[in-house]
């Protein structure tokens, strides 16, 4: 059980870091962080609808893995 807990914690750490980066990459609705660091570059790079949809799918996938790892860590700690 100890090794499984360590593996889940590493997965949680990695998915948390990737989620932060993925969320910051999303196209901003206004004067948010996306406009603060990108300006005109963010508008031209994020103008593709396919890229934004793929970014949404990747973000949702990482968030599901993040959620499942949190639930599994909680269950392991409860029954250990």
TrEMBL record:
The cross-references to InterPro entries, in alphabetical order and at most eight, read: SecG
Membrane-spanning residues where?
Answer: 58-76
Q: Does the keyword tRNA processing apply?
A: no
Q: Name one GO cellular component term.
A: plasma membrane
- Keyword annotations: Cell membrane, Membrane, Protein transport, Translocation, Transmembrane, Transmembrane helix, Transport
Keyword Membrane listed? The answer is yes
Q: Where does the UniProt annotation place the signal sequence?
A: none
NCBIfam families to which the protein is assigned, alphabetical? secG
Q: What is this protein called?
A: Protein-export membrane protein SecG
Its source organism is Rarobacter faecitabidus
């Amino acid at each position: 059980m100890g090794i499984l807990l360590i593996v889940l914690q590493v997965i949680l750490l990695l998915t948390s870091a990737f989620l932060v980066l993925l969320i910051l990459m999303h196209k901003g609705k206004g004067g948010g962080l996306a406009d603060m660091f990108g300006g005109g570059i963010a508008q031209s790079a994020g103008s593709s609808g396919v890229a934004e949809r793929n970014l949404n799918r990747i973000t949702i996938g990482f968030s599901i893995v993040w959620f499942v790892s949190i639930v599994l860590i909680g269950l392991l700690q409860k029954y250990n």
